[in-house]
Amino acid sequence: MASQGFWSLGGDNAGANTGNQSPSTPRAWCQAAAQKLSGGIGSKLCALLNVGEGEKPGEPAAKQPPETAAGTCGCNKSCNCTKAPLVFSDLYSTDLLPAMDGDTKTMTFLQEVVDILLAYIVESFDRETKVIDFHYPNELLQMNNWELQDEPATLDDILISCRATLKYAIKTAHPRYFNQLSTGLDMVGLAADWLTSTANTNMFTYEVAPVFVLLEYVTLKKMREIIGWPDGRGDGIFSPGGAISNMYAMLLARFKMFPEVKEKGMSSVPRLVAFTSEHSHFSIKKGAAALGIGTESVICIKADERCTCIENLLKVIQGAWGGSLLMSRRHRWKLDGVERANSVTWNPHKMMSVPLQCSALLVREEGLMQNCNQMHACYLFQQDKHYDLSYDTGDKALQCGRHVDIFKLWLMWRAKGTIGFEAQIDKCLELSEYLYNKIKDREGYEMVFDGKPQHTNVCFWYLPPGIRYMEDKEEKKKHLHKVAPVIKARMMEYGTTMVSYQPQGDKVNFFRMVISNPAATFQDIDFLIEEIERLGQDL
Amino acid sequence: MASQGFWSLGGDNAGANTGNQSPSTPRAWCQAAAQKLSGGIGSKLCALLNVGEGEKPGEPAAKQPPETAAGTCGCNKSCNCTKAPLVFSDLYSTDLLPAMDGDTKTMTFLQEVVDILLAYIVESFDRETKVIDFHYPNELLQMNNWELQDEPATLDDILISCRATLKYAIKTAHPRYFNQLSTGLDMVGLAADWLTSTANTNMFTYEVAPVFVLLEYVTLKKMREIIGWPDGRGDGIFSPGGAISNMYAMLLARFKMFPEVKEKGMSSVPRLVAFTSEHSHFSIKKGAAALGIGTESVICIKADERCTCIENLLKVIQGAWGGSLLMSRRHRWKLDGVERANSVTWNPHKMMSVPLQCSALLVREEGLMQNCNQMHACYLFQQDKHYDLSYDTGDKALQCGRHVDIFKLWLMWRAKGTIGFEAQIDKCLELSEYLYNKIKDREGYEMVFDGKPQHTNVCFWYLPPGIRYMEDKEEKKKHLHKVAPVIKARMMEYGTTMVSYQPQGDKVNFFRMVISNPAATFQDIDFLIEEIERLGQDL
């Protein structure tokens, strides 16, 4: 489709490296990277020279063990790394802990995985590397043996699978990755997520997650203080994403007005209607469908209309993305009035770049969440435990088990301080303003909405020269609608950058730039514009 | 409360180390562990000698940098590790990537975190170490500075926070941790979770998670084949836990019968009733409350009754835990008929020990999930993309963003093969049978249910000598009700093991042993029984 004729994906060069791309092989990249690094770190990279190699289309993966049997580490001659000599092609997962004498093998295996990850991280931040090594689904299915077998694979196979997976992953940490919220990769957040995985526990009770439950308590209180609720009082929980947080908020609002709905269902209450902004997130409609309100009973209010009665009626649900603006003294006025809301969804995995997932629902009224959702499962929430049961927070949510999402936010907050988050958010808004100022009067660009964006969304059309001067408005619109998808597809083929596009109502496809990537600079914005023009000039 | 009088938590020794506990300080433990290890791995541990130190009650955390400024790595004299000389107490998160020249600092910092994690992992599997270093919530709040500040903390502080967090965490990998499903820590699963965090992306579209979307596709198909649906056809998704999977299944069942409910809500359909087993999970009631069915319309069927009409009526929702039995040729008959279900919730994070969270909902009918939940968000699910849109799976769920839960299951499956999971599951059932055989006729024990358990749940009362021969049945019951909570509290104080308890209906508190920990052995079962008797003999 997209590769036919005029709307091609960049002609003969599609998918090939361009001049400003990375060195042509991973090996070359690693060698270059190792030279850049001082001290012992360089030697870590030397073991990684075959990152992603042996994964060429149609060829079986090369199975050379990263360690040789000769008793050396398999690195180069000058290496002084401390890897123990293990032959992963002779080892299986059953040789690792809890196997007897599995300590050394386990540490060596995990260190090997970490070395792969460290190299990937350093590479991800390098502008000379691709954001994505794109392949169509059917191609990618053929490029590696992804099938699951009855028989076990060796640890060498497992390491090869790790390299292959990263080779074809999107580098979401890349400074030129703008595709969506969330972008960027915070190093302290990542460390925290590794620790969370290692702790491998569940948030339902204090007894299995004492520290994490306390950190959730401390952090939610701080977030409520920032919202402006007196003394940070209220309640809250971290949930698996903003859509679930929003649904939880709707569930609470319904229960607050009609507590009998919990036992007796929707047949016991009057027909309910939900008011929301016409620009609200689609999760409000999903929530209405799930809760039995029905999408037709979601009344969308024009965004620029003022209606105090509706503001009061509605249990105000803030957009999850904007919540982070509360941390910026310069921009927090944009959320004036949020302290009057009964519930706030705030997704630190968006503007604050906390690793996915991290979404908080904050609730003004204490006790409401517990009353709304509790079912008193007697095997979890025993009432005769020896500690303060208010720390068994699991019954406040619909979920039973709940993933630990708090530690990465807490550790990042500690590392940055509130002022660090503020600086990060302010910088994203500066970059958006820079983009807006750069293109608002530039030839070939049109803004989708009037005026300076209030947040880091900048929506615009790029009109290639061949379309720019068309007189037939309908014909022009028809052509323009196809521009963004083709440029986006070419971006992915070249792997140089990624930005999203969408239509909206009667507006044809436009670029929907959104900046949340702390690695991005003014030069990356310049690059984006140059790249759009380079990839779109023939359209 | 629990520490008063007769029902005390072990008298003067409460909280102290017992003879079979770990060396008395983390430093001593580390030294012992380092001696056990060969090769260069020992030197990794030497940097960790102060794991958790400086966290004593009331004292501020010790802030000695793990690296000194002298240009050495801070390890001992014979160390030949490759750590670069960095003074973390002079560094902040802003010195890490994406900072200019942040590569070396980032790798060194992350390596330091990994060293902490590796030491924690090895320690967790050591039976000589405590399962938990328990403190009451108010104590734990005082034991460290957990508060969030405006100002940033140094990277040294961040490392100290990591150590403190792990010091007070539950060692869920410990061979004697039986508190709940999930227990154990799989090393390949952990490696996969670290990689997932590093890739930091979202499952909503193929364009941002190409490999993970394909792996979800491959794995769900394999799971449907195992269920027994023809050619593995059908649909499915990984969701944040079994409770959400169950709610999704109820949502689908409702939509299947009354598709108008999506737009028109519950007022457009007849009053609905949900049938379930009296022993079903409480998430069925939570789902009924959320969906507007109401908990009173959940009809619980006695577990031993047979009623074909209800089996047919009900869109059979299997218990999420049992799903894994399908992988065992020896035990799969216990789920005979599952292939007739329209949806199956299967939680690999339970019996299969995949790190939390990992829950799959599998659905027989293709297209139903999409029709039920899709809202066509135009900024995510553009219809004019250049690849096959069936791989944009995000609109099948209520969630918008969706955490990547697939990679750890896929990589573990690859590492073990289907036969490896089978062996792991069979072993847990063997251990349960061993426990059952050991206590069914043992003096002082009574089984809660008749006959051999079909799964790894073994429910029993322990009657201490002082209660064993009481003649007044009501008095005996009253006393017995208090036994399990006190023994459990003492287990936590001593930190030797953890097992759950609960009452059920008119049955007073009993131990609810559940075995899913691949690290557990017959000797650990013996230890549990000895420990119950040791801690309960004076009651």
Short description:
Chain A is α+β, with helices and mostly antiparallel strands and 539 residues long. Chain A has 16 helices and ten strands.
Describe this structure in words.
The structure is a homodimer of 539-residue chains. Chain A has 539 residues and is α+β, with helices and mostly antiparallel strands. Chain A folds into 3 domains: 21-169, no CATH class; 198-416, Type I PLP-dependent aspartate aminotransferase-like (Major domain) (Aspartate Aminotransferase, domain 2); 421-536, Aspartate Aminotransferase, domain 1 (Alpha-Beta Complex), CATH 3.90.1150. The first copy, chain A, is built from 16 helices and 10 strands. Chain A has a 5-stranded mixed beta sheet. A 3-stranded antiparallel beta sheet of chain A has the order 2-6-5, with helices on both faces. In chain A, a hairpin with a 2-residue loop joins strand 9 and strand 10 (507-514). In chain A, helix 6 (187-199) runs antiparallel to helix 13 (406-439), helix 7 (210-227) packs parallel to helix 13 and helix 8 crosses helix 10. The longest helix of chain A is centred in the C-terminal third of the chain and has 34 residues, at 406-439. Chain A is globular and about 75 Å long. The model of chain A is unreliable at 1-79 and 305-318 (pLDDT under 50). Chains A and B meet through helix 2, helix 3, helix 4, helix 5 and helix 6 of A and helix 2, helix 3, helix 4, helix 5 and helix 6 of B.
